[in-house]
Structure formats: structure tokens, C-alpha cells
Amino acid sequence: MKNGVFSNYKIFAANSHPELAEEISSIIGKPLGDAKVSKFSDGEISVSLGESVRGCDCFIIQSTCSPVNDNLMELLIMIDAMKRASAGRISAVMPYYGYARQDRKAKARDPITAKLVADMLVAAGADRVVTMDLHAAQIQGYFTIPVDHLVGLPLLGKYFAENKMDDLVVVSPDHGSVPRARNMAEPLGCPIAIVDKRRPEPNKSEIMNIIGDIEGKNCILVDDMIDTAGTITNAANALKDLGAKSVRACATHAVLSGPAIQRIEDSAIEELVLLNTMPIPKEKMLDKMKVLSVGPLFAEAIYRIHTNGSISKLFV
User: Fold this and answer.
1) DSSP the chain
2) Hey, CA dihedral for 8, 14, 16, 22, is it positive or negative?
3) What is the residue-level pLDDT of the chain in tens, covering all 316 positions?
């Protein structure tokens, strides 16, 4: 290694999203490294590296999605294995960062688990983290190592721009997603609206009011993730009831837990555009869903990191 430039780089994958890892590997033109991630009979995770990583710039592709604890431990143990094998630099490529919603103390005696996960990654030996659309951008500050925070919004915006719909309005399903809605609306050249809601308890939301003109408009709801889908479907139904011409929705992370699929199926959403930061099982795929790939973006980011190129230029 000289001046931070590594002579070679290798890409490895654990078990959370092999399809995305294979796609990234194919785009870069470098086969995935030889690593076996399995379990012992008692459930403990076993990692075995089948090739040398000494002095190499190593990238581990692993979304910490469900089962989040298994996937997180796989990543931590693989980082530890590479560190002990004298890897030159270890980058954790996490398209989806689990526990990101536990980013602050919402009430007394709450943990801040997003910070705990950051500490664990650093303690295991990660030198860098590459992720996408953190639930709270401030999570980058939980790390004492570089964090490359990729953005999925341009991929979603480009899809809708190519469809060339008239009378568009980008709608934020809550106040927290207003900056995201503005960032999508600007290149589309359309106004935004805001769904003002009250959440009586976790994973339940109640629609209160729509701020903005949505009557007779083609509405696009935008959020960072869809979990139980209560927020996005309630918002979609409210928009339709209040006179929207059509309602589409998009999000970066398709968590889709609990009653999400049935809610989406029964909702006023005509089309749901998602990114493949985590695998979506075939049984959860609906006809109204469209999945776009983040593979090219992560492949370009990995190449730029290895060659000390600019990541910010990916969004110019």
C-alpha cells in the first residue's frame, strides 16, 4: 500500500442479499471472494475465508435486514476474520442499515441502538461504512470512521421522470419526509404536499389533514422505507378520498413486515416503486410493485472508494 492506494481489492458477501452481491460483482467484473458463512449446530455463526486477504482492500456486502441479528452478526464476524487475516482496509457495504430507527431517546430509559451498532462495527475492525438512505442522516455522526451515505432518491426520481406524467405532486407522508419530498419534486418540476398525521402508538398512524393542492393531481408519495405500510397506505387512501386523480408511492427500503402486503394490495396505491437494498421474497411481490436495482450505484461507489475517487460526484 502506498499513499492509501491498495494494489488489489476483493468483494465478499455474507448471506443477507446474495442476488445484489452477485449483481455488484458482475458489474465490477470481479468474482465474489471465497467465503463460507454458515451456522454451527447450536446456532452460532461460522465464517471461513477461503483465500488470502492480506493487504487487500476488502468490501463486504451485507444488508442488516431481517433476520437482522443474524445478518448483523455475520457482518461483524466476517469483519473480525478479515482484520485478523491482516486485510489492508475493510469496508462494510450495508445497503440497508438495521436498527437505524432507534436513533434517539424517544422516552426515558430508551437505548440508542443505532449508535450501539456503529460502535460494534468499529470495534470489530471496519475501516469504512457504505450505506444508503439512513433513517436519520445524523447516524453518520455516530461513527469515528468514514461513512459514505448514498442516496436512492435520484433512482426513484429518474423512473418517474421517464414516465412523463402531467399534473404531478410529490407528497410527503409525514413531516419527517418533507426534505425528501422537496428533493424529488425539484428535478420533476412539481409542487409538494404534506400529510399531517398523528401516531397514537408505534406502527399505527392516523391521518389528520393534507397540506397542499392534490385535487385532480397525480400524486407520488415518497418515503425512506415501508415497514408495516400503515403510514403510506393511510396517506394514499386519504389522498384518493380527497380528490387525487391517481396515487403512486416509492421508497428505498422494502421492509414489508406484518400486514404490509395486504395493506398495499387493498390500498389506493396504483404503483409502488421500491429499491432492492434488501431481498423481497417472491410471495411478497405484487403486480403493482416495481423494483429498481441499486447494484450499479453501489458498484460505482466501491470502485471510486478503491481508487480514491469522489463519491459526491455520483449525485452531481
Assistant:
1) -BTTB-S-EEEEE-SS-HHHHHHHHHHHT-PPP-EEEEE-TTS-EEEEE-S--BT-EEEEE----SSHHHHHHHHHHHHHHHHHTTBSEEEEEESS-TTTT--S-SSTT---HHHHHHHHHHHHT-SEEEEE--SSGGGGGG-SS-EEEE-SHHHHHHHHHHHT-SSEEEEESSGGGHHHHHHHHHHHT--EEEEEEEEEETTEEEEEEEES--TT-EEEEEEEEESS-HHHHHHHHHHHHTT-SEEEEEEEEE---TTHHHHHHHSS-SEEEEE-SS---GGG--TTEEEE--HHHHHHHHHHHHTT--SGGGG-
2) positive
3) 444 567 799 999 999 999 999 999 999 999 999 999 999 999 999 999 999 999 999 999 999 999 999 999 999 999 999 999 999 999 999 999 999 999 999 899 999 999 999 999 999 999 999 999 999 889 999 999 999 999 999 999 999 999 888 999 999 998 888 999 999 999 999 999 999 876 666 666 565 689 999 999 999 999 999 999 999 999 999 999 999 999 999 999 999 999 999 999 999 999 999 999 999 999 999 999 999 999 999 999 999 999 999 998 876 5
Global pTM value:
0.93
Query: Of residues 10, 39, 164, 197, which has the active-site annotation?
Result: 197
Check if 197 is active-site: yes
Which residues share a beta bridge with 54? Answer: 87
